[in-house]
Design goal:
The complex is a heterodimer of chains A (539) and B (787). By secondary structure, chain A is α/β, with parallel strands linked by helices. Chain A is built from 20 helices and 14 strands. Classes of the chains: A alpha/beta (539), B alpha/beta (787).
Chain lengths: 539, 787
């Protein structure tokens, strides 16, 4: 037996035991992407680095045997920094979108591919539920949203973006027209009270989600009618007021109170509000610079200063978002702020740690190169067994034109490529990157692998761009005696996992396909059903 | 794969496999043979190999794409190999490559011209650093090539090819004058590259014509590579005379000087022959590559003065393959002593006492390594000579293997006896054909002489040595990668421990030492540990061989005692900086080493001192840089080398070196940001700390040292200025008022961006200019300015 010390805990292990195995015996978690118990180690990802105190060197624990008297640290700052860099390097060479570009660029973070999937399958109600998880005013936004999502849709450069905004409007209008609009279940009343100053998109959105969380909101506004800029800044031809009223009614039905013609400094005192309410949300929209000081929080000359992640101002219990923080007119951003504020306020009210939102850890492809998308579209259509043909010429369709419906809506939503990663939830690379706070963009350069999908296997989909060369599939095919198997081809940065001698994946993976898919830590090997599950109603 | 053109005869493949073996570990040898047969690896041939051997398709795919010597698409009729070693790089090899591609109209994504005549490839160091930049077309080597001389070189090559076969001359059979003594011709690779083979042919035929019978002897490397080809007339009764930079045309003159024809008839006869030959030669295009004949080079004394020849003992005297001569100089005495008088323990103790440390770069104490292998338990033990010298700009091992094969064999035998190994391998780069041939021959000679095989010199000791030819992968210089390669796998390093001393080749205890280390062993055993330990510093004993190259007056192969300072090497041995420029830095240790500024010229050559200043001994490349060299470009050059040679196994090296190179390329292109320097520095430390093997761990050294000593140059690049005027994207060429309108620049410009206007001041169209530097080089008035 060999004795050593891991994180100051003594351990005895048989000779030949690796540091990783020893640490696992002590329930110490060491991340790894290239090691799988039962397969020979390969020492590739270097995520399992730990510190050997005596030599003062970082060593790969997956393959380093425990030596007598060894003293090892697995969670020091230095070790974590090295793992983070390893993840950042891997991410810089991992070409794929964790989430679809439309969803990523939606200021309200709406799950657009999921909405499309529901519409395509005829599940309009589920589509609405999906929309309303992030957007409290979808019928309103369906008419006036600037739709950055469509601008970032990969199809926009090829044959026109999917008409996301019109589709959202369609499901929202259907809901309003039903006579009994969707009212999500509310949590048990918390007994907490929140004052929201301003009834524009930010305030309405914050109220909607705070009410759902069981808090009692009162919305103050100096105008006679609620809606803020939506009512007083948008032409009625663009946004019919009955639509706005119907969506405000939903918020009212959830229990929010509206106290109109109240202005801070006149009818209202901020100090009193802070006394009476458990939290205050500033959602006034843009205010003239000279009026900023009446909020009694830190501000610049133009806007109120908040914590980027939590929307907390410098004064405890006061939160702010929308135009008062980011002057400008993008309604969808204000709606998004409203929801984020609601989450933050809810945590504050329950004395929980305010959330730190970090989506820098996610991978994204960025701009697609010439010729990269068509094969992906064709692959999708191959998978969907659909012909590649749009239902109508999309390029000229203005998303503000309301009227997409029925078969057209199904056809249009079916054009969605479901760009986000089908292994989002199973991808260890993403999970560890988020855990270690890795910045996926840190080393992103101009040089990157191509976006590719190889479909020459009955059910395996291989995306070489996502491969991180961990070699698990190579070792699995070798260990399980595949006739051909997979192999590393080339050297260095250009190394690729391929079937030997320009063979097909079908030839390479005769018996180990499922095992390789299950082992792949970065979503490079998928099955068609994983993709189809993401794309289609599998029933 | 574009296979259609090649007809594969499967029986050829069967023959190759039968000759090289059916085992999985024979794959690299088989691939070499297939490539030799077809000039690339046709897929059909590879499939056949898999059908008839134990080699799997996965193995053949993985291995054949790992090593850079193997091609997967057909090649042109001739290979143009452009050396991209360090010395060639600083002397403009990249511009030569561009010029060749332009001249042959080679498409950007291709390496072969549209006619299928020439395939251009950048190759790792050819080891002719003193002739930089070097271009090799098939077996013909051209030194000191320039972008505007490319056309001439190609024309010359084509001319030679068409002349080939018409050159056969009948030998005279009349009575010869017998002369005592010998004519020595240096036939190391540099000398051969410098044209010494042709010189030797010319000597033989001239002597023949002059009816002189004297032995023309090939000798190994003399080290004075800056003077190649070298001919030494060592005749009894005459003082020995050394001729430098001899060209075949000069041979006649030399022969005349030493052997005056006796009769008038003979003299007339020879004149006529010469006249005839000069007529024949008139068809030859003019060549700008010929060196003037320098009789009795004076600085030779200075060059040789500070040197101490141990690994290169008897340099310039020994015929590399003459076993009797080697024995005459004390060869195999050390072995005899070890086998017959000493115990393995006593030998190891002697090596320990000598203070010998591994010459491969890291400097691990050799005696200690031998002792570990000796004590290790295994069914069998192996010994390996690491001759996979891959550093660009280093050619010590090549020279030692070419010139002193018996010495290395003897060193290995002593080591094998000491550690208890009975089987061993020479792992030699495929790029070193001469070294491979000489070692192969020397092994055969030793076997015949009973020096290899069973019961050597009547003892119980048996040893067999084989050769494995590398496939072109720098990482195989790392001992565990080298072992993987001998086992027929991709040369990917293994994690250590276990160290090869415990579990190496085929899982058995294995001693891996560098070529130079073995070459020092016979001297130590013959002269005693104390004699060796007398040389050098406290912790670094003995001598070190360096390949001295770059911006220096006298480059070459030198062996110096440890402890000598950098400045002494540069100034005394190297004769200072060439062309009156200023000494700026030395790059020592190649891609793992660092740049030491001139201010630290007092740094002594020993393992610790070099490490202290951020460099390392490395395998022994020593490149001298002057004030026209851009340090950012040097860092980028070395990093692009390591990045290209990374095996791709671990994240930090595979991706990290690429990202470091991204940043450096950005900086050299004038697109750097101020934050890039800190990013580069932190990533350098991270790659150093996180990489699996020495290649990745030391890859950041050239960056870290240049950042440390030349940070201002990096900052200048970020501000859009390259102080040395090297980085193409940061400089512009213009012509000043000194222009006399001679039109030379307009004539050489390969992209016609200088309109030809005789007697007027010329102008350069910067938007078209490729910064090839041809105009500046040709201008007689120095009127071309670089800004």
């Amino acid at each position: 037996m060999i004795s050593a010390q891991i994180n100051q805990t003594p351990i005895e292990v048989p000779e030949g035991t690796t540091l990783l195995q020893a640490a696992r015996q002590l329930d110490i978690d060491i991340p790894t992407l290239c090691y799988l118990e039962g397969l020979p180690h390969f020492t590739s990802c270097m995520l399992c680095l730990v510190k050997d105190v005596e030599s003062d060197k970082l060593v790969a624990s997956c393959s380093m045997p425990v030596a007598e008297g060894m003293v090892v640290e697995t969670d020091s700052e230095e070790v974590h920094a090295a793992r983070k860099t390893a993840l950042e390097l891997l991410m810089s060479d991992h070409v794929g979108d964790c989430i679809a570009p439309c969803e990523r660029t939606c200021p309200a973070h709406m799950n657009i591919p999921l909405m499309n999937k529901h519409i395509e399958a005829g599940r309009d109600r589920e589509a609405l539920v999906t929309v309303k998880q992030h957007i409290a005013l979808p019928a309103v936004l369906g008419r006036i949203c600037a739709a950055p999502c469509e601008n970032n849709c990969y199809r926009s450069r090829i044959d026109g973006a999917v008409s996301i905004c019109a589709l959202k409007c369609y499901v929202a209008d259907q809901d309003l027209a039903s006579g009994s609009p969707y009212l999500p279940a509310r949590k048990t009343p918390s007994g907490k009270r929140v004052a929201i100053i301003g009834s524009g998109p930010t305030g309405l959105s914050a109220a909607y989600y705070l009410q759902l969380d069981g808090h009692a909101c009162t919305i103050f506004d100096d105008h006679p009618e609620p809606g803020g800029m939506l009512r007083y800044g948008v032409a009625e031809t663009d946004l019919p007021r009955d639509i706005l009223d119907l969506e405000i009614d939903v918020i009212r039905k959830l229990g929010a109170r509206f106290d109109m013609q109240q202005q801070i400094g006149l009818q209202l005192s901020l100090a009193e509000l802070r006394e009476t309410f458990d939290a205050v949300v500033l959602a006034t929209g843009q205010v003239p610079p000279e009026e900023l000081k009446k909020f009694e929080v830190d501000s610049t000359t133009k806007s109120v200063r908040v914590d980027n992640a939590t929307f907390a101002t410098s004064t405890e219990g006061i939160f702010a978002g929308g135009g008062v923080v980011n002057p400008g007119k993008m309604a969808v951003r204000s709606v998004g702020h409203g929801r984020s504020i609601a989450i933050s306020v809810d945590r504050y009210l329950w004395n929980q740690v305010l959330p730190v939102i970090n989506n820098r850890s996610q991978s994204r492809v960025g701009k697609l190169r010439e010729g990269e998308l068509l094969p992906v579209i064709e692959a999708m259509h191959d998978l969907k067994r659909l012909t590649y043909e749009r239902e109508f010429e999309r390029t000229g369709l203005d998303h503000s034109v309301v009227g997409i419906a029925g078969a057209q809506a199904i056809g249009e939503s079916g054009q969605c490529l479901q760009c986000g990663c089908a292994s989002f939830h199973g991808c260890d690379l993403r999970i560890y990157s988020e855990q270690y706070g890795a910045n996926a963009q840190r080393f992103k350069g101009e040089r990157r692998k191509s976006v590719e999908r190889i479909l020459d296997h009955p059910f395996v989909v291989y995306e070489p761009g996502k491969c991180i060369q961990c070699g698990l599939c190579v070792r699995i095919t070798e260990a399980k005696g595949e006739d051909l198997g997979l192999v590393f081809v080339g050297r260095g940065f250009n190394v690729r996992v391929e079937a030997p001698l320009n063979g097909t994946m079908d030839g390479a993976l005769q018996k180990t396909a499922r095992e390789c898919i299950a082992a792949c830590p970065s979503g490079a090997l998928l099955s068609r059903d994983m993709l189809c599950e993401k794309m289609l109603d599998s029933g | 794969m574009p296979d259609s053109k090649t007809d594969i005869n499967l029986t050829d493949i069967d023959t190759i496999v039968a000759e090289h073996g059916h085992a999985a570990s024979d794959v690299i040898a088989i691939l070499h043979a297939v490539q030799q047969r077809y000039r690339y690896l046709p897929e059909q041939a590879l499939r056949r190999v898999c059908e008839i051997s134990d080699i799997t398709p996965a193995a053949i795919s993985g291995v054949s794409t790992f090593y850079s010597q193997f091609r997967h698409r057909p090649a042109g009729e001739h290979f143009i190999n452009v050396c991209t070693g360090t010395a060639c790089h600083v002397k403009g090899a990249p511009l030569v490559v561009d010029a060749i591609r332009r001249e042959r109209h080679i498409a950007p994504d291709n390496d072969t011209d549209p006619d299928g005549q020439f395939t251009v490839q950048k190759v790792a160091c050819l080891g002719c650093c003193t002739l930089a930049p070097v271009v090799q077309i098939d077996s013909v080597t051209y030194g000191h090539t320039k972008p505007d001389g490319v056309r001439e070189v190609l024309t010359d090559f084509t001319w030679r090819t068409t002349q080939n076969g018409a050159n056969g001359k009948s030998r005279s059979t009349s009575k010869k004058q017998k002369v005592a003594g010998e004519v020595r011709v240096g036939l190391g690779s540099c000398c051969v590259a410098g044209g010494s083979a042709a010189v030797r042919d010319a000597l033989v035929s001239s002597l023949d014509n002059a009816r002189v019978d004297v032995s023309v002897k090939r000798v190994g490397c003399v080290g004075m590579c800056h003077q190649t080809p070298l001919v030494e007339m060592n005749l009894t009764g005459q003082p020995s005379t050394l001729y430098a930079r001899v060209q075949p045309d000069d041979v006649e003159q030399i022969i005349q000087r030493h052997f005056r024809p006796k009769t008038l008839g003979q003299r007339l006869n020879r004149r006529a022959t010469q006249w005839l030959e000069s007529l024949l030669l008139n068809g030859a295009p003019e060549q700008g590559k010929r060196h003037p004949l320098n009789v009795r080079d004076k600085p030779v004394a200075a060059f040789l003065g500070r040197q101490k020849h141990i690994a290169t003992e008897n340099c310039g005297v020994l015929d590399p393959l003459d076993l009797d001569e080697y024995r005459g100089f004390g060869g195999f005495q050390a072995l005899q002593k070890c086998l017959l008088e000493l115990s393995p323990q006593a030998i190891i103790e002697e090596i320990k006492q000598s203070g010998l440390r591994g010459r491969g770069g890291a400097g691990f104490p050799s005696g200690q390594k031998w002792a570990i292998v000796q004590a290790a338990k295994g069914d069998k033990k192996y010994i390996i000579c690491n001759g996979d010298e891959g550093d660009p700009g280093a050619f010590m091992d090549r020279m030692i293997l070419e010139s002193y094969p018996y010495r290395v064999i003897e060193g290995m035998m002593v080591a094998a006896f000491a550690v208890g190994a009975d089987e061993g391998y020479f792992y030699i780069r495929g790029e070193y054909p001469l070294a491979l041939a000489r070692v192969r021959q020397a092994l055969a000679t030793c076997r015949e002489a009973g020096l290899l095989g069973k019961n050597i010199l009547g003892s119980d000791f048996s040893l067999d040595l084989k050769i494995v030819e590398g496939g072109g992968a720098f990482v195989c210089g790392e001992e565990t990668a080298l072992i993987e390669s001998i086992e027929g796998k991709r040369g990917m390093p293994r994690i250590r421990p276990p160290f090869p001393a415990h579990s190496g080749l085929w899982g058995q205890p294995t001693l891996v030492n560098n070529t130079e280390t073995y070459a020092l062993v016979p001297w130590i055993m013959r002269r005693g540990a104390a004699a060796f330990a007398e040389l050098g510093t406290e912790k670094s004993k003995g001598t070190k061989v360096f390949a001295l190259a770059g911006k220096i007056a006298r480059g070459g192969l030198i062996e110096v005692p440890m402890g000598i300072t950098i400045r002494e090497i540069v100034e005394e041995i190297g004769g200072g900086i060439a062309d009156g420029r200023r000494f700026k830095a030395v790059q020592i240790g190649g891609p793992s080493g660092g740049c030491i500024p001139a201010e630290l010229g007092h740094t002594s050559i020993d393992f610790e001192a070099l490490q202290e200043v951020g460099a390392m001994m490395g395998s022994g490349g020593l490149l001298v840089l002057d004030d026209s060299d851009c340090m950012v470009d040097i860092a980028r050059y070395f990093l692009s080398f390591t990045q290209d040679q990374s095996c791709g196994k671990c994240t930090f090296c595979r991706v990290g070196t690429r990202r470091m190179l991204d940043i450096l390329e950005r900086i050299c292109a004038g697109k750097g940001k101020p934050s890039d320097l800190d990013d580069l520095e932190s990533l350098s430390h991270e790659v150093n700390g996180g990489s699996l093997c020495g290649l990745g761990k030391t890859a950041p050294n050239p960056i870290l040292t240049t950042l440390k000593y030349f940070r201002k140059e990096y900052e200048a690049h970020i501000q859009g200025h390259c102080p040395a005027g090297k980085c193409a994207e940061l400089i512009t060429y213009s012509i000043n008022d000194d222009c006399i309108g001679c039109t030379k620049c307009a004539q050489v410009c390969p992209v016609d961006c200088i309109p030809m206007r005789p007697y007027e001041i010329h102008e350069i169209d910067s938007s078209v200019c490729t910064r090839c530097d041809s105009c500046r080089q040709v201008c007689p008035e120095d009127a071309v300015e670089v800004n």
